[in-house]
């Protein structure tokens, strides 16, 4: 999973030749092989790729926004990669409140935080019921925005955030 | 800029140290753990940093990073990598350690959790040969890791005795003045205990849950509630009841059909969601509706209520038409065929319907059309036009699943009428490019078609008024209330009640000829029409809300149709209909951690259960034992065998068999004279209390919870026999012989009570027990009256019948074979297992460390050894029996503990041999 995210990120960054990866341990932590010494960990590698690609702005353009980007990258690792049903609710509730007055997670343009939180949130959003999507409307709005941001979605299917059907599926 | 910290919070160590090391100017405020500093987080998160821009950072590492960057020290790759490792590996391990050490006082076990991360750190430090983690100068990584490790490494040098490089590095960082002062501020020299109040407020770390821990299956019966203290009054009351004897009048006389509501009785109408005819029901369907409804109606009859239980197959709709086309039969033939399949499955499961009907009947047409005309007259129907695809060759409008074409978004050529399988977008069938009729491959045309809609918004206020009353006075399950509330909250919209199909109840309105009712409108009317096929006086049940109480049983996906849509139809029809009083919805039953799936051949379907050789009663028992009541639960073969062997065989069956055998062997088959002593009276009171609990729970349809009290009674009984040893006393002098008689007599009477309480759950076993005891029929009518009356129903001199064992052991190899046959083991990368796998992965590391610590060869990568697993499964089962036997005999604590730890070791080895993650938390016990 993490490897596909990194492959998509590479495409988004416009990196010419794809890097070589492997994974480590049961958690399948990604390892970047063609670096000496090899780099371990999703966020570490992602930050490295961004620096390589000269898209430094993806890590934030002020000290404050750089810190906020790092904050959300850490959030991705601690809250989205390991969760229970109850956690999901808290995560969505908190993000919904946070995104109430924001277009992006940090600053005024898309950052690595948006990309990796979007990847991490995708399996959760896919499972949401229509009502829940409406309940977390700010998250849904942000999510839809990011999935339509050119070049980010790549390996993931788009999620329909609103549906309006005449016939609902039958009652069981 | 302001930094918020709290005392005794280990995360504050690093931020305070980082602040001082970097010399950044920033105000510090100490607040309590519970203070909500960050406005958008629902749980308090400390430390937190308010940035000059007004934004908040709420994790300690991001804060440390910020201070270092403000001081001109940016993170390089290596530094990033350490911080990520700290977040994902070290911190979780540390929190678990603190939890164990501070709250559970398990210092030595706790340090094992940290072994593996410390090994990693040690190797890296010794290989790198640098003073600090990322070079010769202190970096943010050093401060962060120091802060995390300080609580465990500062006090006990021994904790890192094997990790020389870690110790050297740690002492070097700890010697920094900034670190020392941070430690003083946060812990105030109190060490680990300073963190107690903080750790208490944190949720228990996830790694203390083992892979196979299914909270819902963790046998309700095994939870010990401690010894209940019985008062003198309770004992006296119990003895009074006991000596009352059996009722002479028989309440639950044989059923006289047709059952009709009676004046002065509690008239209870029970329905189970109508199973859809074209599928064989799986275990989840069975527990969700028919079985739960069966248990409740059997119980109701024992209580003396006047119960009618109806159900039937739901037969109209597209799915039946499809199936008919597939099998080359007519829809009617399909329905006939599968109706018989359903009926025979429910018969095998001993579902005691008063009537099991179907929806494709004259009565259905009559009643559905009557309700339709009433809604029409009362102006609750509105007309609207819908654009649809029509196949001219087949002469019909095409339902979504009958059209295929090119996706308008991604040009995938085989998109369905409702959704594209490739891009996942939802499609309106008329948007498809080059649409084709799936039956004849002709190109359909777009036609508009007039439809009727039920005007739910117009009925909303009536509905809400009724809902308020019904949900507050009746027993609605929590999920039923929640789902209903969310529907109402989202606002009701008109719902189309007609469809362009042939297989359905015809719409009688001349403008809508050739249309039928949409199944959601039609199917619930089946309850009424099925009752009408049972008795022509059906209206006494269905148009009689003052005399009749209606219980609907279903799985949660069916709730809105029973709580919102169908009540609206009935309210709008205005004919004094009986509306649901108690809506009982279950959650989902999973199969061995995955879903039941016919197409993948996963799971047990109704028709296969009898081929397993396991009796119907045992199936019923286990399904009810794991009934998804309040939360999802899972069916597991191993668990089923375990519950059969431990609860049915060793607890319940063992007790009833012993009681009967003592009468047969020591007293020539006649119940001996009972001279009640204090101890016996106490037991009567205890059993009486369990009986009361059972009745209270069953009255509220808590079927799974009530079962636990049956098992508690036989547990009390086993202890009672064990302590009094009648088999020894019988060989001694007269007073002892008399004592043996009393104990035997009381026990066999408890067995008789158990047979009555078991009746709703295991009807065949219940009957067998009463046959073996030759119990009078009236005991069934007596025991469950009022709040519960445990009377002496087998008095001295009563001759019992022939006693024989009730249950058989389920052997491990038998269960293994069944598991294989029904596709129990799913590959780990199955999508439905994804979340589970993530959670497991999170537990993997400490688990391996724990396993290594007890001297098990930890083969993490594919060390699956089926042969060894088989041996170990057997060993685990044997050891389990041994432990249970010891517990039942109330053996010495130390002895039991020693055997339990052996058992846990074996289980761990078994998990490893099976290639699973072993349970890392042997402390998951009953005592704190």
UniProtKB/TrEMBL annotation, chain A:
Output the InterPro entries linked to this UniProt entry. Answer: AIMP3/p18_C (IPR053837), Arc1-like_N (IPR053836), EEF1E1 (IPR042450), Glutathione-S-Trfase_C-like (IPR010987), Glutathione-S-Trfase_C_sf (IPR036282)
The segment(s) forming the GST C-terminal domain are 48-170
- Report the protein name in the record: Eukaryotic translation elongation factor 1 epsilon 1
Q: Where are the transmembrane segments?
A: none
Source domain of life: Eukaryota
Task: Provide the GO biological process annotations.
Answer: positive regulation of DNA damage response, signal transduction by p53 class mediator
Signal sequence coordinates:
none
Species the sequence originates in: Kryptolebias marmoratus
Q: Name one Pfam family in it.
A: Arc1p_N_like
One Gene Ontology CC term in the entry? cytoplasm
UniProtKB/TrEMBL annotation, chain B:
Biased-composition ranges, Polar residues, are 207-220
Domain GST C-terminal, first and last residues per copy:
72-207
> Can you provide one Gene Ontology molecular function annotated for this UniProt record?
ATP binding
Question: Domain WHEP-TRS spans what residues?
Answer: 868-924
Q: Quote the catalytic activity from the record.
A: tRNA(Met) + L-methionine + ATP = L-methionyl-tRNA(Met) + AMP + diphosphate
Q: Which family does it belong to?
A: Belongs to the class-I aminoacyl-tRNA synthetase family.
Give the matching PANTHER family. METHIONINE--TRNA LIGASE, METHIONINE--TRNA LIGASE, CYTOPLASMIC
Q: Which CDD domains does the protein's record reference?
A: Anticodon_Ia_Met (cd07957), GST_N_family (cd00570), MetRS_core (cd00814), MetRS_RNA (cd00939)
Residue ranges constituting the GST N-terminal domain according to the UniProt record:
1-75
Instruction: Please state what the protein is called.
Output: Methionine--tRNA ligase, cytoplasmic
GO biological process terms held by the UniProt record: methionyl-tRNA aminoacylation
Q: Which GO terms describe its cellular component?
A: aminoacyl-tRNA synthetase multienzyme complex; cytosol
Which key words are in the record?
Answer: Aminoacyl-tRNA synthetase, ATP-binding, Cytoplasm, Ligase, Nucleotide-binding, Protein biosynthesis, RNA-binding
| Domain of life according to the entry | Eukaryota
Region ranges (Disordered): 198-233
Location(s) in or outside the cell: Cytoplasm
EC number assigned by the record: 6.1.1.10
């Amino acid at each position: 999973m993490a490897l596909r995210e990194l492959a998509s990120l590479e495409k988004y960054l416009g990196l010419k030749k794809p890097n070589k990866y492997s994974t480590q341990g049961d958690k399948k932590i990604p390892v970047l092989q063609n670096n000496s010494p090899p780099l371990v960990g999703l966020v570490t590698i992602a930050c490295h790729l961004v620096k390589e690609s000269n898209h430094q702005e993806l890590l934030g353009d002020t000290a404050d926004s750089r810190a906020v980007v790092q904050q959300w990258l850490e959030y991705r690792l601690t809250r989205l990669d390991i969760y229970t049903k109850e956690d999901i609710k808290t995560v969505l509730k908190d993000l919904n409140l946070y995104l109430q007055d924001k277009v992006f997670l940090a600053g005024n343009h898309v950052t690595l935080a948006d990309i990796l939180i979007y990847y991490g949130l995708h399996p959760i959003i896919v499972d949401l019921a229509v009502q829940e999507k409406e309940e977390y409307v700010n998250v849904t709005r942000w999510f839809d925005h990011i999935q339509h941001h050119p070049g980010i979605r790549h390996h993931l299917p788009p999620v329909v955030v609103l549906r309006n059907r005449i016939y609902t599926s039958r009652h069981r | 800029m302001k930094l918020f910290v709290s005392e005794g919070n280990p995360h504050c160590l690093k931020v305070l140290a980082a602040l001082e090391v970097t010399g950044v100017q920033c105000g510090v405020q100490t607040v309590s753990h519970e203070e909500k500093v960050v406005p958008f987080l629902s749980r308090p998160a400390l430390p937190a940093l308010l940035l000059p821009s007004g934004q908040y950072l709420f994790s300690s590492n991001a804060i440390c990073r910020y201070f270092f960057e403000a001081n001109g020290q940016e993170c390089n790759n290596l530094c990033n990598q350490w911080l990520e490792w700290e977040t994902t590996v070290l911190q979780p391990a540390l929190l678990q350690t603190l939890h164990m050490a501070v709250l559970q006082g398990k210092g030595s076990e706790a340090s094992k959790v940290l072994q593996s991360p410390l090994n990693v750190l040690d190797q890296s430090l010794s290989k790198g040969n640098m003073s600090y983690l990322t070079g010769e100068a202190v970096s943010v990584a050093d401060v962060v890791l120091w802060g995390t490790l300080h609580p465990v490494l500062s006090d006990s040098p021994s904790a890192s005795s094997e990790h020389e490089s870690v110790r050297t590095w740690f002492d070097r960082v700890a010697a920094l003045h900034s670190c020392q002062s941070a430690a003083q501020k946060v812990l105030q020299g109190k060490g680990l205990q300073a963190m107690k109040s903080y750790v208490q407020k944190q949720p228990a770390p996830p790694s203390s849950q083992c892979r196979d821990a299914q909270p819902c299956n963790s046998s309700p019966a095994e939870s010990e509630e401690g010894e209940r203290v019985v008062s003198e009054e309770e004992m006296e009351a119990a003895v009074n009841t006991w000596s009352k004897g059996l009722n002479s009048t028989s309440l639950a006389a044989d059923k006289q059909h047709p059952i009709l509501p009676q004046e002065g009785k509690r008239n209870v109408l029970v329905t189970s969601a109508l199973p859809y005819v074209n599928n064989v029901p799986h275990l989840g369907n069975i527990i969700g509706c028919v079985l739960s409804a069966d248990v409740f109606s059997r119980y109701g009859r024992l209580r003396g209520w006047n119960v009618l239980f109806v159900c039937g197959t739901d037969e109209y709709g597209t799915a039946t038409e499809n199936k008919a086309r597939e099998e080359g039969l007519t829809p009617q033939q399909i329905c006939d065929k599968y109706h018989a399949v359903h009926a025979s499955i429910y018969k095998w499961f001993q579902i005691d319907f008063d009537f099991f009907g179907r929806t494709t009947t004259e009565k259905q047409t009559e009643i559905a059309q009557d309700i339709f005309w009433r809604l029409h007259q009362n102006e609750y129907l509105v007309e609207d036009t819908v654009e649809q695809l029509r196949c001219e060759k087949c002469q019909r409008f095409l339902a979504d699943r009958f059209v295929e074409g090119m996706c308008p978004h991604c040009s995938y050529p085989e998109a369905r009428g409702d959704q594209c399988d490739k891009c996942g977008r939802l499609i309106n069938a008329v948007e498809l490019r080059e649409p084709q009729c799936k039956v004849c491959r002709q190109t359909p045309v777009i036609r508009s078609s007039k439809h009727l809609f039920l005007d739910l918004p117009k009925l909303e206020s009536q509905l809400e008024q009724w809902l308020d009353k019904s949900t507050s006075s009746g027993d609605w399950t929590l999920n039923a209330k929640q789902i209903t509330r969310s529907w109402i909250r989202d606002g009701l919209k008109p719902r189309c009640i007609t469809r362009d199909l042939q297989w359905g109840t015809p719409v009688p309105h001349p403008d809508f000829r050739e249309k039928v009712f949409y199944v959601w409108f039609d199917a619930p009317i089946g309850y009424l029409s099925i009752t009408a096929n049972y008795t022509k006086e059906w209206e006494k049940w269905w148009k009689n809300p003052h005399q009749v109480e209606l219980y609907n049983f279903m799985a949660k996906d069916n709730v809105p149709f029973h709580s919102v849509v169908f009540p609206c139809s009935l309210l709008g029809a205005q004919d004094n209909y009986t509306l649901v009083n108690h809506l009982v919805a279950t959650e989902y039953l999973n199969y061995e951690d995955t879903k039941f799936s016919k197409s993948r051949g996963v799971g047990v379907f109704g028709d296969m259960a009898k081929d397993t050789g396991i009796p119907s009663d045992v199936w019923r028992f286990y399904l009810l034992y794991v009934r998804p009541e309040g939360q999802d639960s899972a069916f597991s073969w191993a668990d089923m065998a375990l519950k059969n062997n431990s609860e049915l065989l060793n607890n319940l069956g063992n007790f009833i068999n012993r009681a009967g055998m003592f009468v047969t062997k020591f007293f020539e088959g006649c119940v001996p004279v009972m001279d009640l002593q204090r101890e016996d009276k106490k037991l009567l009171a205890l059993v009486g209390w369990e009986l009361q609990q059972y009745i209270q729970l069953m009255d509220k349809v808590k079927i799974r919870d009530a079962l636990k009290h049956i098992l508690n009674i036989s547990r009390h009984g086993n202890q009672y026999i064990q302590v009094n040893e009648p088999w020894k006393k019988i060989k001694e002098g007269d007073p002892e012989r008399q004592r043996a008689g009393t104990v035997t007599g009381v026990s066999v009477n408890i067995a008789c009570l158990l047979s009555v309480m078991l009746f709703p759950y295991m009807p065949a076993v219940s009957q067998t027990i009463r046959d073996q005891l030759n119990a009078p029929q009236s005991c069934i009518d007596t025991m469950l009256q009022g709040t519960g009356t445990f009377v002496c129903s087998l008095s001295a001199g009563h001759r019992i019948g022939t006693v024989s064992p009730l249950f058989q052991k389920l052997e491990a190899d038998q269960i293994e074979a069944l598991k294989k046959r029904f596709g129990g083991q799913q590959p780990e990368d199955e999508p439905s297992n994804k979340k589970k796998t993530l959670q497991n992965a999170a537990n993997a590391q400490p688990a391996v460390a724990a396993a290594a610590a007890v001297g098990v060869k930890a083969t993490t990568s594919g060390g699956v050894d089926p042969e060894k697993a088989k041996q170990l499964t057997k060993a685990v089962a044997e050891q389990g029996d041994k432990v249970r036997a010891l517990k039942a005999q109330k053996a010495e604590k130390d002895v039991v503990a020693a055997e339990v730890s052996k058992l846990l070791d074996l289980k761990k080895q078994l998990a490893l041999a099976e290639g699973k993650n072993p349970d890392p938390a042997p402390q998951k016990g009953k005592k704190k």
